[in-house]
Design goal:
9 helices, Rossmann fold, 2 domains, Adenine-specific Methyltransferase, domain 2, binds S-adenosylmethionine, globular, 8% strand, alpha/beta
């Protein structure tokens, strides 16, 4: 498939990010007008491929809200986010105050700014909520958290070709256009990384079975599936 020239890093730290695997993943992705990622996470595959259009989905509403704002208001968003990356804001008490502010806020712009701040200042870039939906990752104690300005601008530019949605993968796949390529969860070169959609309903039930195996056995599925072509 068409690769993007240089390897690009995501602006978020994200558990399960595929940055180290993008070279291998690229080799398995066929050409198409559209790449669909039902579980976009930090977007390493999106950032390191070159499709004319993308449909990027994640069930995490804070993540998708952040992506929408980086796409639509890059300059003001990046400038405002930068003010949260100072020596003063890199202290446990300030972190806990800003975390509380995030948890109490229902303003999309404020939540997105604070979500990015929490991602870079919290422990290990974890994204974890308690049962009441409150973000509860402890302070990360990093010397000088990195502000990913170049990565944010790169994402914003590329996002002009992307549509974002916040839904479960089942909902998303039922609307997958015929001929689109779908990338999801696989890990090694031996496993399949993408499918061409021929029938959204069949695909959706297939994916559900694969994920069922994945979550039940708590490991990656090792079957090598064949390309679905038509
Ligand atoms: C391992 S990450 C994806 C990593 C991504 N490929 C990358 O390179 O950064 C998995 C993502 O799936 C999302 N997710 C989990 N369950 C989901 C569901 N049922 N529907 C849609 N997204 C889901 C999580 O919020 C998380 O962001």
């Amino acid at each position: 498939m068409v690769k993007s020239r240089q390897k690009s890093r995501a602006f978020l730290k994200w558990a399960g990010g595929k940055y180290n695997l993008v070279d291998a993943i690229q080799q398995h992705l066929p050409d198409s007008d559209t790449l669909i990622e039902p579980f976009v996470g930090a977007g390493s595959v999106f950032l390191n491929t070159d499709y004319p259009s993308y449909k990027l989905n994640d069930i995490n509403a804070d993540l998708i809200n952040l992506y929408q704002l980086v796409k639509t208001q890059p300059d003001s968003f990046i400038a405002d986010a930068k003010t949260l990356f100072t020596q003063l804001t890199n202290q446990r008490e300030v972190y806990l105050r800003l975390r509380q502010q995030f948890n109490l806020s229902d303003d999309a712009y404020e939540r997105a700014l604070l979500f990015l701040y929490l991602n870079r200042h919290g422990y290990n870039g974890l994204c974890r909520y308690n049962l009441s939906g409150k973000f509860n990752v402890p302070f990360g104690s990093y010397k000088k958290p990195y502000f990913p300005q170049a990565e944010l601008y790169f994402f914003a530019e590329k996002a002009q070709r992307a549509e974002f949605s916040c839904a479960s993968y089942q909902q998303l796949m039922l609307q997958a256009p015929v001929g689109a390529v779908v990338y999801c969860l696989y890990r090694t070169k031996k496993e399949l990384f993408a499918w061409v959609v021929d029938n959204a309903l069949i695909f959706e039930s297939f994916l559900r079975k694969v994920l069922f195996t994945f979550t039940r056995k708590r490991r990656f599925v090792n079957h090598a599936y064949k390309w679905r072509t038509y």
